[in-house]
Amino acid sequence: MTDHSDEGTLFRSRKFTDWPTVKEALISKDIGGVFILAPMAMQLVADGIPIKVVYLGHRDGTAIIVGKDSGINDFKGLAGKTIAIPSRYANQNILMHKSMKEWGMPYDSIDLRELPPPEHPTALQAGTIDGYIVGEPFAAKAEVDGFGKVLYHTKDIWPEFISCVLVVQEDLIEGRRELIQELVDGIAKSGKWLDEDIEHRMDAAEVSAKNYYFQDPELLKYVLSKPVDRVKYTNLAPLKPDFDEIMELAHEIGVLSRRVGFDEYADPSFVRDLEELDWNMDRLPSAESKP
Questions:
Q1: Using an 8 Å Cβ cutoff, are 54 and 60 in contact?
Q2: Cα separation of 180 and 172, whole Å?
Q3: Statement: the pTM of the whole predicted model exceeds 0.85
Q4: What is 33-91 written as a DSSP string?
Q5: How far, in Å, CA of 212 to CA of 14, rounded?
Q6: CA proximity to 92, closest of 44, 34, 147, 138
């Protein structure tokens, strides 16, 4: 459970606003598990940090955003522009290089600038960048506020895109396996429920906006419905072919110091068939629950 549910183990959540802080908290073992960038997880393992990817956070849920009146209408239009990315270790960075290669553009044809995700919309509005690629809800923020537009949803240019993955400390897997199973099952059940019905998504937007994201509920409702497959919460098993593709691309552009084998950084043994999982979602917390 969390502070807003009433059965199971109490998992305390902690919010971060930048990736370097997340990385340091994981290395120092201030946290037992975290949703982290997929290539960052690979590099941490390459550096000897004992963690394993056990599940995904979601599929897709990322977009390339440009100014509404920028005149940029395809990827080629980003040549010579400054585009913000969440981190060099983000799969969004990998996607930008993958797309440059597919469009026959040199890797230095776009100026990729690292910025913390919450700063992307304000930087675009201020004109210090020409666009950005980031996960939700920061991608939709510029669109909803009227100064940005979606150039591409990742679902349309790299289907089933992986951004964040759930990693846990290896000593927790070894000593508290049942705890990790409970955590993965809970995430899987929540995702199954979210993808079952649009009304479930609207309910979840109200609750998460108040208790977790501290965002406008209408922004989260937009993210979860415009279009409804903008972000998906099922098919979250870490699959070797998906990760091998990411790993090879990351190594090619110098993000990874070496090739990392799937078994080195992933443990998919906690994944269970969604049909085996059931959760009485009558216990969904209300938006009035106290954070």
A1: no
A2: 7
A3: yes
A4: EEEEEHHHHHHHHHTT--EEEEEES-EE-EEEEEETTS---SGGGGTT-EEEES-TTSH
A5: 9
A6: 138
Give me 245's structure tokens.
């593709």
Each residue of 25-41: b (16+ CB within 10 Å) or e?
ebeeeebbbbbbbbbbb
* Strands lying side by side in the sheet with 148-153: 111-114, 82-85, 131-135, 62-67, 148-153
One-letter amino acid for residue 69 of the chain? D
Find, among 276, 206, 233, the residue nearest to 4 by Cα.
206
Residue entry with tokens 């705890």: 179
Task: Convert the pLDDT of each residue in 157-183 to its tens digit.
Answer: 999 999 999 999 999 999 999 999 999
Amino acid identity for residue 288 in this structure: E
Crossing angle (nearest 10°) for helices 177-196 and 198-208: 120
pLDDT digit string, tens, across residues 222-233: 999 999 999 999
